[in-house]
């Protein structure tokens, strides 16, 4: 019977060393033993936490024992990591992990078990593993990158172990050149990192051409069905279309498709990102349909976010919606009844999920540091019976038809900025005669943190215009908790109809000296 990955000789020796207190006697090794690994950690998370110390050649995760092994290409890199970890905490998914030398000098490669990468001799076919794939990867994207280093004949993308691809060159020399130039680089700044190895295959088989497979020799003419690749605003265009990396407003445009960098960002591997491209920041990434609206319904595949470290007795579906609606349309939410402190949030588009992860991961909510990642579930299934949460609310709620989703038209979408939580919030849609005292009562009545400062903007239509302004809390954590509890509260002054109070993050740096409506997020 073969051993499981976490029962390998490397790991068992490290475990015994740890129990006997011999860690200080272990000589330096290129392999670092990592303990206290956070649940849900993936290979790219671990690589991202340690890659500034040097090139990582191999990773093995042992989730059952919350341990991992990292092998660096150079001994100096491992030494630097262990020495740094003695005096500084190195967090892995918001948890401080412990790093010591392993008793082994290399990690045993046991086929595909517990490993990311394969090692074969020079070959004309490369195996590309895309780590942290926050944006769609198509054959057009990979061809644009790879063609600079030789004649690309065939590309095939597959999803057996994350996002991977086989790229076939005309000869091994061209493939070697591409591997040397591209291994470790980021397709987009801070994500979609390339890990490249030689493949043992002798040919890439392409049956038809679409977004995930293509024969560039002309031998295959058949067009296949469209692949299920999410479309990102500013991201890769349709197959055979002109490709442009996503841009932040104000960022310089690349001089050409992955040409000379136009202000590329820092790369820990000593290379620049292709074309200086930046992942989308403070802009609306939603792709508009030809009719001018946002495609919204059942949601795209792989648009589900796994949320950990929630406060079990205070969180519910509505409160999660109040936060996630700032980053995209929410389809449905499920808070686990048995797995306390965890939830699934399904967005209608993958980029909405990606932005929620980017800006909410690590944020403090109700005394807990949120941990967000993409879920392996393509959607939240409706299984009929719905459980109840401690507050009596349902554990699963459908939001696809909610009027409080903020990306339901092109006009709405343009008014949403993608930013991290802030201690100053913009409020809007308040009753015309609302006062700062009445607004504070909304929060105190709901047992939410009360803002310390309220600034009312002048009414656009005196006597009838809905009120808007700024709210300020002492800390970001208090503001985020208040938003979760009180966003979309209903106000009914004097019985003259209902007003849904809406709250959004603001770019203002002070409620005492607000800009003249500049940088204010005002979705309707």
How would you characterize this protein structure?
It contains 10 helices and 23 strands. Residues 1-12, 18-23, 110-119, 228-300 and 514-524 have low confidence and may be disordered. It has 524 residues and is of the alpha+beta class.
Give a short summary of the structure:
The chain is an alpha+beta fold and 524 residues long. It has 10 helices and 23 strands.
Return residue spans where pLDDT drops below 50 for at least 5 consecutive residues.
1-12, 18-23, 110-119, 228-300, 514-524
Q: How much β-strand is present in the residues?
A: 15-25%
Shape assignment:
globular
What's the rounded overall pLDDT mean?
74
Give a topology summary.
Elements: H1 9-19, E1 31-35, H2 43-50, E2 56-62, E3 67-72, H3 75-87, E4 90-92, E5 95-101, E6 125-131, H4 139-146, E7 152-158, E8 163-169, H5 172-182, E9 186-188, E10 191-198, E11 213-215, E12 304-308, H6 317-324, E13 330-335, E14 343-347, H7 350-360, E15 364-365, E16 368-369, E17 371-374, E18 396-398, H8 410-414, E19 424-430, H9 436-445, E20 453-456, E21 467-472, H10 476-486, E22 489-491, E23 499-505
Antiparallel strand pairs: 1-3, 1-5, 2-3, 4-5, 6-8, 6-10, 7-8, 7-11, 9-10, 12-14, 12-17, 13-14, 13-18, 15-16, 19-21, 19-23, 20-21, 22-23
Helix pairs in contact: 6-10
């Amino acid at each position: 019977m073969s051993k499981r990955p976490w029962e390998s000789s490397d790991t068992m020796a490290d475990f015994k060393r740890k129990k006997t207190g011999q860690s200080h006697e272990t000589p330096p090794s290129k392999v670092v033993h990592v303990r206290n690994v956070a649940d849900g950690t993936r290979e790219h998370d671990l690589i991202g936490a340690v890659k500034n110390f040097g090139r990582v050649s191999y990773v093995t995760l042992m989730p059952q024992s919350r341990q991992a092994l990292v092998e660096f290409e150079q001994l100096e890199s491992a030494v630097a990591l262990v020495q740094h970890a003695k005096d500084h905490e190195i967090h892995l998914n918001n948890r401080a992990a412990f790093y010591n030398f392993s008793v082994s000098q290399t990690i045993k490669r046991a086929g595909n078990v517990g490993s990311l990468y394969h090692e074969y001799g020079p070959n004309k076919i490369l195996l590309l593993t895309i780590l942290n794939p926050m944006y769609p990867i198509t054959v057009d994207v990979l061809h644009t990158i790879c063609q600079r280093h030789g004649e690309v004949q065939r590309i095939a993308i597959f999803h057996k172990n994350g996002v991977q691809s086989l790229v076939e060159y005309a000869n091994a020399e061209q493939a070697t050149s591409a591997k040397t130039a591209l291994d470790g680089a980021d397709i987009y700044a801070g994500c979609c990192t390339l890990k490249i190895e030689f493949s043992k295959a002798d040919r890439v088989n392409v049956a038809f051409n679409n977004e995930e497979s293509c024969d560039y020799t002309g031998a295959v003419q058949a067009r296949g069905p469209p692949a299920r690749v999410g479309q990102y605003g500013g991201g890769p265009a349709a197959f055979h279309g002109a490709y442009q990396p996503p841009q932040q407003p104000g960022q310089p445009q690349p001089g050409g498709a992955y040409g000379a960098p136009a202000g590329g960002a820092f790369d820990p591997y000593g290379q620049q990102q292709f074309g200086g491209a930046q992942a989308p920041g403070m802009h609306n990434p939603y792709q508009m349909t030809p009719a001018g609206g946002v495609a919204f319904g059942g949601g795209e595949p792989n648009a589900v976010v796994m949320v950990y470290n929630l406060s079990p007795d205070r969180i519910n579906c509505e409160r999660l919606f109040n936060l996630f609606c700032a980053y995209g349309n929410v389809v449905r939410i499920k808070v686990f009844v048995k797995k306390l402190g965890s939830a699934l949030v399904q967005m209608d588009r993958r980029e909405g999920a990606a932005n929620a992860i980017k800006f909410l991961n690590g944020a403090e909510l109700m005394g807990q540091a949120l941990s967000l990642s993409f879920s392996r579930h393509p959607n939240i299934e409706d299984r009929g019976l719905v459980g109840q949460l401690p507050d009596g609310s349902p554990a699963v709620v459908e939001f696809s038809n909610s009027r409080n989703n903020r990306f339901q038209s092109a006009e709405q979408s343009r008014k949403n900025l993608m930013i991290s939580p802030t201690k100053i919030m913009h409020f809007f849609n308040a009753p015309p005669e609302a006062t700062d005292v009445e607004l504070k009562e909304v929060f105190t009545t709901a047992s939410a943190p009360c803002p310390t400062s309220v600034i009312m903007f002048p009414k656009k239509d005196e006597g009838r215009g809905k009120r808007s302004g700024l709210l300020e809390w002492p800390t970001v954590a208090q503001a985020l908790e208040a938003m979760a509890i009180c966003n979309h509260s209903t106000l009914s002054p004097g019985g003259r109809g209902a007003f849904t109070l809406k709250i959004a993050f603001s770019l203002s740096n002070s409620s005492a000296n607000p800009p003249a409506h500049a940088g204010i997020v005002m979705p309707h």
